[in-house]
Amino acid sequence: MALIVEKYGGTSVGSVERIRKIARRVQASWQEGNRMVVVVSAMSGETNRLLGLAGEISPRPSAREVDTLVSTGEQVTIALMSLALHELGVPARSYAGFQVPIKTDSIHGKARIEDISGERVMADLEAGKVVVIAGFQGIDSENAITTLGRGGTDTTAVAMAAALKADECRIFTDVDGVYTADPRIVENARRIDYLTFEEMLELSGAGARVMQIRAVEFASKYDVAFRVLSSFEDGVGTLISCEDSSMERPLISGITSVDNEAKVTIRGVPDRPGIAYSILNPVSEAHINVDMIVQNVGTDSLTDLTFTINQDDLERTLALLEPVVRELDAETVVGDSSLAKISVVGVGMRSHAGIATTMFRALSEKGINIQIISTSEIKISVTIDREYLELAVRALHNAFELHVAAGIE
Amino acid sequence: MALIVEKYGGTSVGSVERIRKIARRVQASWQEGNRMVVVVSAMSGETNRLLGLAGEISPRPSAREVDTLVSTGEQVTIALMSLALHELGVPARSYAGFQVPIKTDSIHGKARIEDISGERVMADLEAGKVVVIAGFQGIDSENAITTLGRGGTDTTAVAMAAALKADECRIFTDVDGVYTADPRIVENARRIDYLTFEEMLELSGAGARVMQIRAVEFASKYDVAFRVLSSFEDGVGTLISCEDSSMERPLISGITSVDNEAKVTIRGVPDRPGIAYSILNPVSEAHINVDMIVQNVGTDSLTDLTFTINQDDLERTLALLEPVVRELDAETVVGDSSLAKISVVGVGMRSHAGIATTMFRALSEKGINIQIISTSEIKISVTIDREYLELAVRALHNAFELHVAAGIE
């Protein structure tokens, strides 16, 4: 008899009919004798509807009240899911975040979980009930409702699995697992059977849209193995866990891409200590996320600093930097919003040289120019002209033979 | 500097524009230096939308989950109302029932308030904030969300006023006060300036739709004077409080009517002890509300028992009583669903004889036949053929000269 935590996102519970379907799936697992915890999001569209109401009233609504508002979305789903389970003869009980309770800090809109008391939930599980928990939300020390931000329901599921010492954590999504590349780009992309937390972190951070990075970080920190599965079709999905050293890992697990990168270059900066800080500090103060950063030492004690951001932030960033450029006596600041970033990720990279060589050769053979390179222990990312994105992903998928499953060697 | 509790129902907060309008009204009172508590319902239509979703899933949904579901309606309103106040530069903070907390028993769907802790709310008020509270909802000792049933938001407002020892409690509705009769029936019906709790209880119980009887009971029990006002126009409304003996009261305060009464008569019941119980017990067991009850002693030790119910319950009641009639060896059971009930209410009635005489004469002069009579200390009710309802109300309004304001004599 296993204790299983299952997470269903907004699309999976997007209608009464879909809620019924998920209830039948949960019923089946419960009938097999498993203790079931179901973590759900708001029905798809509901959060946007609520935010729309807030937006009609206030252009910059208070984060506390927005949390109170949008958290009703999941509360509706837990009630409906419990009712659907009751209809199938399954005893079920709903829990809003404050009822578990899932205690968080007070940073509304992106609160972090501080503590979860599993006692009440565990008592219901031991009494044979299915427990249905509202994802994405918690309660702070002042009894105010908080939300965890994007991907919050994944985080709730992983956190509940950790708190309850669950045997399994299943993240149901609209894809049937994590792929070696986006199947819309690479025809023979392959579902990956196993990934390490590190790989999943790098893939999520580098553009794979399957799961938010915070949930993966949480899973990694508390060593909660989880499986990414489709809520619409059967399958084993992808299991993400800590590295299993008994198994030979493939060199590269997957290739991921981001198509909305923009590049900002400040040219001719007098090269003295602290210039990177002078340039990047106003950018991060404005909550603009900086991705890759490169500094080229030039001639005449002048240097160029280049960094990448989301293209939506480009205009704002250029406006922010105009006065900085004048102040630093630099030559100019220029932006380019037509970039894509391609990353190859794999823990096997650690122990094998030559990954970068293979990558650069594959791109060069297709005539693709690399603009910026950045590397981590298990990831190499490059930016290229956006026009070449699909071509580059396919070339790399071929070069690393990702369509072939890596067996145990 | 007064502490004022204001209640706004679903119609008053039925759109973003209306919420903004209420916010401006609250702002004005706050700017005058008052400490403001605003109790709100779900936006009109929202509760029905949510119940519709539950109904799609389950024909008899669990009351606990329904409470979790529908309580989101008021939670949406408190957030939006707080945001609207913020936009006007008014510091405001929302409270769901569990955040106050408003503690109730565990009877989902019609929970009773057991305790309210006013400390948190009071601290916010003392810090100059407007406090916005979700009506209709509370939390039980198991941390489950409960709802108070019909008129629950009125009850929340009155209960908060009691807990905070408010100087004023204002119930904003879609009418501008309590009237001597329904203005749609009686052209010269007059808004009543003052009513006692008892009168308001009898009026509410006898069909006046301004306020639910439970809220009035609560106000009476805790001696919370409140004012019924229109949220759409200015005015002083009707003040309801304990009787002010220094003031001469009018004989009759108002006339109210119910147009959906039905009558059930069991004829020829052998007259022995316990027959009323045998007949009425199965009816009340089926949660059918019995209003008036009359027993006529007949000839031959046979008796007729007549009672009135809501006409929607008539068929079910007749079906229930068929076997009872056989069992009691009574003659027959017959129903009549074309009744109306007219009540005259007034504390002045206590000290004056002749009210009934005036009433019966006025009806007889119009050729209106009285079927059943029932009386309380400050109310006389009669049932008549529904066709005569408007005629009867107008005749009584004239007979008691209710269009003339009763001054202090």
Task: Explain the overall architecture.
Two copies of one chain form a homodimer. Chain A is an alpha/beta fold and 409 residues long. Chain A folds into two domains: 3-173, 3-Layer(aba) Sandwich (Carbamate kinase), CATH 3.40.1160.10; 255-399, VC0802-like (2-Layer Sandwich). The first copy, chain A, contains eleven helices and 18 strands. The radius of gyration of chain A is 23 Å and the shape is globular. Chains A and B meet through helix 1, helix 2 and helix 3 of A and helix 1, helix 2 and helix 3 of B.
State the oligomer: homodimer
Q: Bin the helical content of chain A.
A: 25-40%
Query: What is the CATH H-level superfamily of the largest domain in chain A?
Result: Acetylglutamate kinase-like
Query: Any idea how many domains of chain A?
Result: 2
Q: Flag low-confidence runs of chain A.
A: none
The CATH topology of the largest domain in chain A, please? Carbamate kinase
Largest interface: A-B, 37 and 37 residues
Number of β-strand runs of chain A = 18
Order of strands, main sheet of chain A, comes to 3-6-2-1-9-11-12-10
Indicate the radius of gyration of chain A in whole angstroms. Answer: 23 Å
CATH architecture name of the largest domain in chain A:
3-Layer(aba) Sandwich
Characterize the main sheet of chain A: 8 strands, mixed
Main CATH class of the largest domain in chain A: Alpha Beta
The secondary-structure element order of chain A is EHEHHEEEHEEEHEEHHEEEHEEHEHEEH
Strand-residue fraction of chain A? 25-35%
Mean pLDDT of chain A: 91
Number of helices of chain A: 11
